[in-house]
Design goal:
CATH architecture: 3-Layer(aba) Sandwich
Strand order of the largest sheet: 1-2-3-12-11-10-13-9-4-7-8-14
CATH topology: Rossmann fold
Number of domains: 1
Radius of gyration: 23 Å
Number of helices: 6
Number of strands: 14
Shape: globular
Strand content: 25-35%
CATH superfamily: HUPs
Oligomer: single chain
Order of helices and strands: EEEEEEHEHEHEHEEEEHEH
Distance between the termini: 54 Å
Structural class: alpha/beta
Amino acid sequence: MRFSVWSSAPLYFGSDELIFYIFNKNDSFVQDKIMKILVCIKQVPDMESKFKIDNEGTWFNMADLAWRMNEYDEYAVEQAVQLKEQLKGDADITVLCIGSDKVKETMKKALAMGCDRGVHISDDSNWTKDALANSSIIAEYAKSRDFNYIFTGMQSQDRGSGQTGVLLAEMLGLPCVTTIVDFIMMNGEITVKRELEGGTKAIVTVSGPAVFTCQLGLNSPRYPTLPNIMKAKKKELLTVSAGQLQKLSPQQETAQMYFPEKKGGGLVLEGDSAELAEQLIKILKDKTSVLA
């Protein structure tokens, strides 16, 4: 069975893997001497934090929380750095983050991991914006800078919408490969594996420029070394106002946020198999109508 994807790209069905060939609209790949890479990251609360709902009831209270880089974005940063290393340094990596001034600490980790420069999109109310508005901000910054490859996390740990990378690619008119778990560059062509439902993987080959959203397990994100942490403090960190870049208004808003209703606790049965069976039958008779 064969289909066409955009141009002359065939789609083959295998036993447990799907193989795609995707080409850019002009079916060409042009690479400058220095490859330009953009990595988009987000600062999120540490998931071990104790969360409280804010007074408006539409988001969590951001006081007294520990903050970190979104876990999915760590894999995006690592993949960008590995690609630069494969090119023996003939690449320049820009890390971009939207948020208040406190996100600069998270950006410094990306710089210490190997990114070359940072762009902080200043926005104190970023949490009120949906993926469409945030993607438009990134797209406006990126559209005239001719990035060869753009990496994002598959989703953020706070909202989990999984839309930013896809919307960004659409706004820039670029191919997008989502949920990647393997990445190989050879002869100017990228071959990745995508994670699909039921454990199936899709093998996708794409010529750049392109956008990739990164799944957990794509690689092993490095820990920044002390010398690299010190070097990161001297790297360029440019701040741009979100108001200068945002072209689209949010189309969604959070009506209400609340904790799940607490339900009764479970019951642990102990004993040998015969005793457990007897206890279970008694519970089913006494507290349910299953054996009535």
